[in-house]
Specification:
Strand content: 25-35%
InterPro entries: DUF2470 (IPR019595), Haem_oxidase_HugZ-like_sf (IPR037119), Pyridox_Oxase_N (IPR011576), Split_barrel_FMN-bd (IPR012349)
Helix content: 25-40%
Shape: globular
CATH architecture of the largest domain: Roll
Number of domains: 2
Radius of gyration: 18 Å
Number of helices: 7
CATH topology of the largest domain: Pnp Oxidase, Chain A
GO cellular component, one term: cytoplasm
Protein name: DUF2470 domain-containing protein
Largest sheet: 8 strands, antiparallel
Number of strands: 11
Organism: Kaistia hirudinis
Length: 240
């Protein structure tokens, strides 16, 4: 019998953010009381959540008065059966409207243009100040923001080339992306596409959900990331 894999709270927390399909979103109403809604989100390459919010929504009006907010992410599988059995992560911090075009691109990659193309919708970036991970009995710990986020230092080449990598893979290598999902991650057949590429791996999404495929080593350049993507495709094609 193989030994149980040691619990890694940082890897678990990062995985929850990258794979959750939506999040419960807490803001403070005009009386200072809690108000909770449901939002879709994407992430920046470092893992910070990106939201697209309408000015007309109650949570947006709350943010204009007080930017403090909280997000609750639940790992896939925790939504059905016993919901308390699923790993979940709560992050607290502040949410501010952003003009970062890459944040907007990341959100569109995950969710398409949709309603966020309307004039009353704006991109917001969540700055994490603290987090609380619940991943099972004896696995309830805080994770420091510095540990929760991916270090992008020394990766300017990959950061500058991310859009090119993602669009090239989606346009010309959709077959390889499908193999990543089905053969390497054991996910169901679906319309899988790549939504992001950062130093630690790639993000995938489809109607079946979201997924993360990590690189074996940190990638600082487009060439290094491309090498991993080619090796992933070769490995996937060799599997039955």
């Amino acid at each position: 019998m193989s030994a149980e894999t040691p619990f890694d709270p940082v890897a678990t927390a990062r995985s929850i953010i990258r794979s959750a399909g939506a999040a419960s979103f807490g803001t403070l109403d005009e009386t200072g009381g809690p108000f909770v809604s449901l939002v879709t989100f994407a992430t920046l390459p470092d893992g910070r959540p990106v939201l697209s919010l309408s000015d007309l929504a109650v949570h947006s009006k709350n943010l204009k008065r007080d930017p403090r907010a909280s997000l609750l992410f639940v790992a896939p599988g925790g939504e059905g059966g016993n919901p308390l059995a699923g790993a979940r992560l709560t992050v607290t911090g502040r949410l501010a409207q952003s003009t970062d075009t890459h944040a907007a691109w990341r959100y569109r990659q995950m969710h398409g243009d949709g309603a966020s193309s309307f004039a009353d919708f704006h991109i917001y970036v969540f700055e994490i100040e603290a987090s609380h991970l619940v991943a099972g009995f004896g696995r309830i710990v805080p994770v420091a923001p510095a540990d929760l986020l991916t270090d992008l230092g020394g990766c300017d080449d990959l950061r500058a080339g991310e859009v090119m990598v993602v669009e090239h893979m989606n346009d010309d290598h959709s077959d390889a992306i499908a193999l990543y999902a089905q053969k390497l991650l054991g996910l169901p057949h679906s319309n899988w596409r790549m939504t992001g590429c950062d130093p630690e791996g790639i993000d995938l999404a489809s109607a079946a959900g979201r997924a993360r495929l990590g690189f074996p080593e940190r990638a600082a350049t487009v060439a290094e990331a491309g090498g991993y993507l080619k090796s992933f495709a070769k490995e996937a094609r060799q599997r039955p």
